Amino acid sequence: ESLETLLVERRGRVGLITLNRPKALNALNATLATELTGVLAEFDADEAIGCSVITGSEKAFAAGADVKEMAGKAYPQALLEDFIAVWDGFARLRKPVIAAVSGFALGGGCELAMLCDLIIASDSAKFGQPEIRLGVVPGIGGTQRLVRAIGKAKAMEMVLTGRMMEAAEAEQAGLVARVVPAADLLAEALKTAETIAAMPLPAVIAAKDCVDRAYELTLAEGVRYERRAFYALFASEDQKEGMAAFIEKRPPVFKHR
Ligand code: HXC
C-alpha cells in the first residue's frame, strides 16, 4: 500500500509502522492521523499480526500536532470537524501497540506515545507537553494520561511550564517501560513485540483489556472484571495447551497466536 506519511512493514507477526514526515519532525497532520489509525485497525483485524510497533526517526518520534495545519482554525470549525476524534481509534484496538521513542515526543507526540500500550525509549528520548507555550493545552488526552502515568506533581509541572523530561527521568517516573541505547531501540522494541505476538492471543487481548480497566474502575470493580476474564480463559484451547505443556515439560503449541 502506498501511504503519504508512514512506512509500513510486516516483520513476522509484528506490524511495524514508521512515522515518515522527516521535514516536519513527524508532526501529526490530519493525513498522518487517518493513515496511522487506519493501518492500526487493519493490523488489529489481521490474524497474522499479534502486536504492532510505532516508531519515528532518531531525531523525533513526533514533535506534536501539526501547528501549521492547526494555527488558523476558528472555534466553530475546530468544534464541528472535531479533528481530534480520529485518535479515538486507539481505544478500539484490542492487540497491543508499542511506542519505540527516540528524540522528541512533544505535545501530540507525547500523547501518541501514551495512547500506545507501552513505551520503550532510547536514551535520547525527550518527552514534553509544550502546548501551553502555544496558548492551548494538550488535546489528545495528555492532561489525563500524564497524570495517571507519572502523578500529579510532575504532570502539573510539565503541562504548566512545557519543560521536557529526559529518558532517565521518564523511566524513573514510570512513563516508559524501559530505556535502551539509541542504536538498539528498534531491535529491542521488535523483540518485545515478537514476545507478545508469540503469546496466545485470547490471553493477550484479555490482559491488555484488564490492565486498561485499572485506569477506569475502582479496585473492587477492577478485581471482579479481572476475575471474570480469568475464568473465561478456561474456555480457550490455549489455556488447556499452555497448562498441559507446562505439566508435560514441553513447549506449548498455541492455536491462536
Ligand atoms: C509543524 C513542525 C512541528 C510541529 C517541528 N516542525 N515541529 N511543524 N508542527 N509541531 C517543523 C519546523 O517548523 C521545521 O520546519 C522543521 O519541522 C524542523 O523543526 P525545527 O524547529 O527547525 O527543529 P529544531 O530547531 O531542531 O527544534 C526541534 C523542536 C521544535 C524543539 C522539536 O521543532 C519545536 O519546538 N517544535 C514544536 C513542538 C510543539 O510545540 N509541539 C506541540 C504542538 S501542539 P521548517 O519548514 O520551518 O524548516 C500539540 C497539540 C496536540 O501537539 C493536541 C491537539 C491535536
From TrEMBL:
Keyword terms: Lyase
Alphabetical list of Gene3D superfamilies matching this protein: 2-enoyl-CoA Hydratase, Chain A, domain 1, Lyase 2-enoyl-coa Hydratase, Chain A, domain 2
Coiled-coil ranges (or none): none
Pfam families associated with the record: ECH_1 (PF00378)
The family this protein is said to belong to: Belongs to the enoyl-CoA hydratase/isomerase family.
PANTHER family reported for this sequence: ENOYL-COA HYDRATASE, MITOCHONDRIAL (PTHR11941:SF54), ENOYL-COA HYDRATASE-RELATED (PTHR11941)
Protein name: Enoyl-CoA hydratase
Source species of the chain: Labrys miyagiensis
